[in-house]
Amino acid sequence: MPSRYAAALIALCLAVVLSGAESPDLSPVRQISNADTIAAARSFAESKGLEVQTYGDGPFRIMTIGGTPPKPEQLVADGELVIGGLDIWTGKQGLFVPDAQADEQVLWYLLLKGDKTFDAFLSYGRKAGVLPKSKGEDLAKQTNNTWGSRVAITEIDKISGGGLHRNITVYLATGLALRTFIAERAPDDQTELPKWLVAGMQSELERLICKSNRCYTISYEKSTVDLSREKWAPALAKLITKQSTSLLSAGDVMAIELISSPAEDYLQLWSLSAFIRQATGPGPGRRGKPGFGTLLDTIARGTPSYEAIYAQLKTDNRGLTKKWHAWAAKQR
Asked: Which pTM was predicted?
């Protein structure tokens, strides 16, 4: 990573294991380009007479149409911290670091001013074939959030209120990096990284970079834990110590779909993903020892997450649950 990010990356408190010459090849099977999506964004802005601004010249950049978000330079730096954190977690293999010299390979954060502008670009991009069409309920319109190839797209006002601009940026940048990772390796365009793992990694990077967690989707009616007020690690440790009926096995956590889930489920998917990352370690490492990067690559190429995790950690649901709960109960 560039030296100017070294201090911030150290603050993430992530261990680094340098890979050796015998590490397995985890190269993507295809290259994903942002060119069509970015070209459509510029063409849309021109057709509407809207101003386009760009920020950053590294692997993560921001494009705005019709407005300016709070502290865009800070948001660029946060996005690059996401990429740096994922790179460290996966053994500094460059798996998440796009070539900043190749414009079509960088990750873009596209911000549009106003609901009407977002909806208009959503229709424009879908007609141009660069944005995914809705399947049933149009969640993109409801959430003001969608994805293009190597591009996360949302609405400026959505991230500007309540001081959430950094949290939402880190959350979406993590999702974008993971979506790109799997798109480059998946056997087909239907394969996805499991929702529980993506949400867990998003929450962990949000916690480390923003020092808070404010992005999650839960059922408040079913929850007994207030995620906005309580510290997550002690809250989960308390549930484990008291043997709460809301505790899940590792296998049950891996089956969470994030639809109407209580806060207790969210705590557990965040904790389990962090435990698995630490248990597998950064890598692949020296002499090809598998690590967290190996695990993500295996899942991205089509192996169910539970199969890949049990195999790499040489355990089963019962064994993993026992070790995870013992570890989580000590976290503060």
From this structure: 0.91
